[in-house]
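Researcher: Sequence of Restriction enzyme BgcI subunit beta follows. Predict its structure.
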Amino acid sequence: MKFKKTIFDKEKDISKIKTKEFDLSLVNAKDGDNGIMYFGRSSDFEFAEMTIDIVNDGAVSTGNVYPQPQRTGVLYNAYLIKPKFNISTSLLYFLSSTIKKSIKLKYSYENKASWNKVKMELLQLPIINNNQIDFDFMEAFIAELEAYLTTAGLKDYELTLQEQKALDEFEGHEFLWKNYNIKELFGASTRGKRLKSADRLSGDLPFVTTGEANSGVSEFICNDVTIFSANTTTIDMFGSAKYRNYEYGADDHVAVVHTGNLPKHAAIFITTSIHKSSYTGKFDYGSHFYAKDADELMISLPSENNKPDYSLMATLISAIQKLVIKDVVLFAERKITAHKQVV
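Model: Prediction complete. Tokens:
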């Protein structure tokens, strides 16, 4: 893929932002953002669709592989390959992941991932009984993975600029922190009510008690109990805090912090801060944590203008959540190991 004009002017011929004029994705030695750092004019660059982008150079990015289903051109330090057979977007994603797994750790800045080398690599792919590549399995696997990520709200795992900035500032210890009182932020905490095991009727409402197993949900009931809102935080009698994204009931050993008006990711951040403050070993069977203890808790939060910066909290948790998805993908890759043979 080449630049069509005689002279390339970086200031005039590419843009870091996609616009109507600069509408063509350009791959280069980029780590993240699907290998795309710049955009060019479609009239200035050769391009192709349904390709796989391989980064052949870069201190960190060498050996990165990205699916490029859209029209894509090459800026530098990367190249595009295109399967000889008709390919769907799902297969493009599967093959890109497989190629990366095969080459990423073999190449480096000192050992470039040139096509002359990479084309000789072996790939592990699922096959059927006649030793033909099992494309149907690949399609079904990607569809299943996408369905899971969508259902879990985790399909989008590319970091935004704002999320990356939040991560960088957090890791660089650039946040401004301040201590806040739980009661002053969210009002008085609420204590659940005692409901003996023998009196619990089987139903659909999660009933939260003390414990780590099943996130403290001991049973599902249909009793007439107080139903606490989703997007709130529970603290059990040992001081263990957990975020609840569903409605639930709770027994008298559970305190509920009413974070329901916060954005979801900000509420999750609050839960982690509460847990850090409350789960210190101070509370046990002889000394229980109660709602009054929650009201006295002080938690450390990112601050702006002497107020909790809930927007920053939400952005940071969103970024961390996206990073965790990478572990889900690794798990998914292990799932197909049993079906693979060297092709």
